[in-house]
Every structure is written in structure tokens, then in C-alpha cells.
Amino acid sequence: MTEPKPLRVLIIGSGVAGLTLGLSLLRLQLSRPHFNLSVKIVDAASRFDAAGAAFCLSPNGTRPLAQLGLLPKLLEKGQVLTGVAMHEGWSKKTVQDIPMPPTAFGGHFIAIERSSIQEILLSEIRGYGIDVHMKKRYKEITENTGENTLRVVYEDDTTDDADIVVGADGVRSRVRDFVLAEDEDTAPCFSGWSYVAGISSSIPNLPAEETGKSHWCIANSGKGGYGTWSLPDNRQFWYVLEPDEIAPRGPGTPMPRYSDESLDASVQRAKQYWHPFGTFSQIVERSDRMYKSALVERHYPRIVSKSGNVVLIGDAAHPMWPYIGQGANASIEDAVILANALLPRSGEVRGTLWYQEQRVDRTARIMRAGGWVGRLQMGETVFWRIARSLSMMLLRLLAPNQASQGTAQQQEGDEGGNRKGGPLDWIHKEDIRLEL
Length: 436
Ligand SMILES: Cc1cc2nc3c(=O)[nH]c(=O)nc-3n(C[C@H](O)[C@H](O)[C@H](O)COP(=O)(O)OP(=O)(O)OC[C@H]3O[C@@H](n4cnc5c(N)ncnc54)[C@H](O)[C@@H]3O)c2cc1C
Fold this sequence. Notes:
The protein is an alpha+beta fold. The protein contains 11 helices and 22 strands. The structure holds flavin-adenine dinucleotide.
């Protein structure tokens, strides 16, 4: 008797979304030997580099990674968040300073470099004898409808055949163009805001309580906001969000790309800002990895092709504003749920449409929450400026209570790991697990 053919899954993109999916599928295959699978991961980049990106993983992202056995490495390479403070950049006043519990809902808040998490995921994937095929830039897909298979063509005109193609190719996804082929306008919407970000070397002489602390500063002048996430060894992931004075904004507006001159101008502006460490310039000047990009978002109700065998995950499926730090976390959730969707149970496979049903409403809700927080922090209209001033006033009045509430939460988190009451708790407590 001939062996049934393996399900060939081709993952385009090796960011946190693509690599988490790859590892999840390989783990499922190990625990369910009947899950006959072949996994291939490709990326357009020529090498993994330490571009200056980082993010904070929250319990909804760290719990599934811990289930994959990655928590010790995440704790080694990342920085557990110990507190979040919000400041008025113009008045240098702290309006909110909340200690964070070390764990909440059975997970951690960990700030980590994108390259570190890639390294962690990749070293696990390599343990299965699989590596990422670099310099493979996706160009197009052709469908063999008779056999229900797909052929992916790369820019170098080489090809791969697959049963399922997963677009994990980020915010400028080209696989998305295939999935949404019949929709006229598929590009993410440019917000009119750009961001500059980088990672500094160690900041000297920081007090111990700064380890793990994140700062967010609001510039009420309409010039945006800026902040830092604490990384290991007192290094800082910093970012500045500012309105784009040149590119037009709104639906249908192409996502701008910024020149080195534009990056340089933003960096010079950033150096003028105040920061709780003293000046922002001492952080920026210690950074050699900086980049500038556009803030975009778009909710796509369809993230699976009509044929069902081309699927989007991560930023390709839901480019979102970063105000509540959920893009990477939602990418991890996508990856785990898609792996569960492809797993056969008693001969049945839930399939990619089930994946879509599980993801579309939740990511829309997350994006709505991020949209409100973003407008409150950065909105330029009179309405949002008044709302921002009122919320700052309210936070200042409540600040002492919140600080003490934070301490109580910390104890609760320490003991029970079951913090209650935050407005984003519904996001962090979502219990997504691989069905090992
Ligand atoms: C300032 C800022 C702060 C943020 N903070 C947070 C945070 O605190 N928490 C959080 O959860 N999220 C945060 N995010 C969002 C987070 O960074 C992203 O959501 C996440 O990195 C997306 O991962 P991804 O794997 O989907 O895409 P990417 O990391 O963009 O990976 C896509 C991959 O696809 C490859 N690729 C692209 N095109 C092709 C092609 N044609 N062919 C083959 N390969 C291709 C690329 O080379 C890349 O390796 C933040 C974002 C910003 C901008």
C-alpha cells in the first residue's frame, strides 16, 4: 500500500508569525505521528539581521510560547516588564506610574528584540532539521485547480509546489493580493503618522527601579508621542511617533517609504525631547540601528482565499497600530490557531475557514481598542486634544491610587497569577493553546 502524501505547507515570511507557525506545526507532528506533514519556510531577506525592532509580548503571546517550551529562553534574552509610566512631555510631569505584576493570567509581559525571538524560534526549528530558505522573494501563485495544489513562483523564477500557502510576509504582504484578488483596494490604510525606532546600547547609571520599566511620553503640541521599552542590560527600544507632513493620508493612500534624509530629520527632532532619564538624545545617540516607517492599519474580514488553501497570518492579515502592543501577540495567536486548524482529528480537519472564523472578530476588536487608545494619545483634532487633556487630568488625580492598586495587583499576580480589572485584560487572558 502506498503511503498517503504529506500535507505540504509553504510559509512565506520568517518573522514571529511565520516561525511560530512553523514550530507549532512541527511540534504537533511530533505529538501526533499520523499528522503527515512537510513544512517549508522561505523569506525574501538575504540574512537574519538585528534591525532595530523590538516589542513587548503579553500573556496571550507568552503563554503559547511557554507551551512550546520557550519560556526559559524568552526570560534569558528578553526583559520582564516591571512597570509602565506615562508622562506629559511638555510639562515633564508623570501622570501615571503603574507597577506590573511579574505574571498575569499565567503568562509574562516580556520586552524582546525581534531578532532575539527569531533566533529562539529558529534554533528550535533547526532541531527538526529544517531551516529557512533565504533570498526567496514571493512573486505569484498559480493554482492547479484539478489537483487542488498551488505553485509559488519567486522573483528568481524558481518555484515550489504546496497544498497550503501561508502569507506571513508582513505589512506590505504580496500574498494578500492573491487572497483578496477580487477586492479592488487591498492596501493597508496609511494613518498619516510615521514612526522612527531604534535600539540603544546600555544606558549607564540607571537606578535599579528602571530595569524593566517602560515610559510613554505624550507631546500635546500635536507633534506626537515617544517612548522606551527596557531591554536586558539597560538597553532601550525607543520609538517616536510623529505626523507625516508630506505624504497624504486616508484610504487608498499608498504606504510611504522614507529616505535616509527623512530618517535623519526625525532623529534630530527626537534628540530635542525630554525623557525621564534626562534627555532623549542620550538614548538616541547610543543607537546604531534605527529605521523609519509608516503607521498603517486595516481590518480584512477575509484572510483565506476563496479556494481555502492560501491563508494570511500576522501583519499580512491584520496590520495594526502599535498603541496597545498587540501586533506580534496577535501573530502568535494566529500561528497557533492555524496549526490547530490543520491538524486532523479522527480523520476530520477543521480547516482554514475555521481559522478565519476564530481570528477575524478577535483581531477586529483588538484593532478597535488600539484605535481608541491611539486617538486618545495622538489625535490631532480639537475633540481629541480636549479628550486627551481631560484624560491626563483624570489620570493625575487618580495616579496615587493607581500606583497603590498596581502594588496590590503585583501581589495578586505573584500569588495567583490572576490579575483582574485592567481595561485590556480581555486581550491578555485569551487562553490560546496548541492542541498537543
Ligand atoms: C513602533 C512599533 C512598536 C510595536 N510594539 C509592539 C508590541 O509592543 N507588541 C506587539 O505585540 N507588537 C508590536 N508591534 C507590532 C509587531 O512588530 C508586528 O506586528 C510583528 O512584528 C509582525 O510580525 P510578522 O511576522 O507578521 O511580520 P514581519 O516581522 O514583518 O515579518 C515578515 C517577513 O516576511 C518577509 N517578506 C516580506 N515580503 C516577502 C516576500 N515577497 N517574499 C518572501 N518573504 C517576504 C520579510 O523579509 C519578513 O522577514 C510594534 C510595531 C511597531 C511599528
